[in-house]
Design goal:
By secondary structure, this protein is mainly alpha-helical. The chain has two domains: 142 residues, no CATH class; 187 residues, hpI Integrase, Chain A (Orthogonal Bundle). Helix content is 50%, strand content 5%. The strands form two sheets. The chain has a three-stranded antiparallel β-sheet. A hairpin with a 2-residue loop joins strand 1 and strand 2. Helix 2 packs across helix 7 and helix 9 crosses helix 14. The longest helix has 19 residues. The chain is globular.
């Protein structure tokens, strides 16, 4: 091997950096990490991991479990230490199963060939071996042994958005109903706020599920909830969300199957409602929306809160649903059942702090009034900096 060739590959970590750089623009699929059949919890954990790989522009050859553990522990997920351990254990087990599979080496060689198309066979072999070694090293549990969940007494509003009723209404009105995409997005957003469904649940929602009744109460039936749980969520006074949903269904000729769908034709979203025949539009729809698509739809309509724009996530609509129900007097156990939680403690985290006003300090200190002197001092310091 020449000196130039050796310069390219020196250590497993250097080889990994080379590979990541070479694959940064290919966006090769990571979905194959998710088994076609397995326990639902395993599939859920691996799906979240694959989504994180995509969001961070990582390839499956770079497990990055330390960074992923930090993500699970961070502000967005805030998982407990035991939950983080379960997620990492599932990912390690999946990688080890794949490494022992007969076709793994062939798949890894294909990656090396794609990353080094103009290099010698020996170069690609070195890359293959170093990356294989890197993957095995990255799966070492000792690397994430130090990860511990922090105890957080209070959660700032900025970490988990809970919209007011006015803010939610403004968001529902933002897409408009003039275009096909606007009509769909209005129906989707209103439905999320009116039912508190998870993004995966709303993606799996079928037309037949929209109008079910229990004891004469109209609601939506979730057949495939988290943890293989089915549940019923009454619409109550928010049943008019169905007006928008059914307008969307009629406009694109959906009579059965998935309620919310994407568009195969990039022009469809901009068509004016009524401009094209529903039958033609139906042929250009995807089978159903994906959770990623729901996330992207919400991101497309940032919300203004105190003069700052925030991009809403599907779980923020669930938190808003829970908080608005609580503010309007619903019992927390009923909110728990609507959200599909096992433990009321989880429901409490969705509602957020309910007694912060009790902890607000009274006017118990009365120092000498010196605000004018402080103002003058700040003005003097500002002039000196200039």
């Amino acid at each position: 091997m020449s000196d130039d060739q050796q310069h390219h590959i020196q250590t497993p970590y250097d080889g990994q950096d080379v590979l990541q750089h070479a694959l940064s623009n290919t966006r090769m699929s990571n979905e194959w990490l998710i088994p076609s059949s397995a326990d639902k919890n395993i599939i859920s954990r691996l799906t979240l991991y694959v989504q994180w790989l995509h969001d961070t522009n990582n390839h499956w050859t770079n497990p990055s479990l330390v960074a992923y553990a930090n993500y699970l522990q961070g502000d967005e997920r805030q998982l407990s230490a035991s939950s983080i351990k379960s997620h990492l254990s599932t990912i390690r087990a999946r990688y080890r199963t794949l490494i022992n599979a007969p076709n793994f080496k062939r798949r890894l060689r294909a990656v090396a060939n794609k990353a080094y198309p103009n290099h010698s066979t020996e170069d690609r072999r070195v890359l293959y071996l170093t990356v294989l070694e890197y993957i095995q090293d990255a799966l070492n549990p000792q690397l994430t042994k130090h990860i511990k969940a922090t105890q957080q007494q209070d959660t700032p509003d900025s970490q988990h958005l809970r919209l007011t009723a006015t803010q939610a209404e403004n968001l529902i009105n933002t897409p408009g109903i003039r275009t096909i995409a606007g009509l769909r997005d209005t129906a989707l957003i209103y439905f999320l706020f009116a039912t508190g469904l998870r993004e995966a649940e709303v993606c799996r929602l079928n037309v037949d599920d929209l109008r079910q009744t229990v004891n004469g109460e109209l609601g939506v039936y979730i057949r495939h909830g988290k943890g293989a749980k089915e549940r019923f969520v009454p619409y109550g006074e928010l049943a008019d969300c169905l007006i928008y949903v059914e307008a969307w269904l009629k406009q694109v000729n959906i009579t059965k199957g998935a309620v919310f769908r994407g568009f195969k034709d990039r022009h469809i979203p901009y068509y004016i409602v009524g401009e094209k025949s529903p039958e033609k539009l139906y042929k250009r729809l995807t089978p159903r929306l994906t959770p990623r698509a729901v996330q992207n739809i919400l991101k497309g309509y940032p919300v203004s809160i105190d003069g700052k724009l925030y991009k809403l996530r599907p779980h923020d609509t669930r938190r808003t649903y829970a908080k608005l129900l609580w503010n309007n007097g619903m019992d927390i156990l009923a909110i728990r059942d609507n959200l599909g939680h096992q433990d009321v403690k989880t429901t409490q985290t969705y509602i957020g702090d309910t007694d912060m006003h009790k902890r607000r300090s009274p006017a118990m200190l009365h120092p000498a009034h010196q605000s004018k002197q402080i103002h003058d001092l700040m003005q003097t310091l500002s002039k000196k900096r200039k």
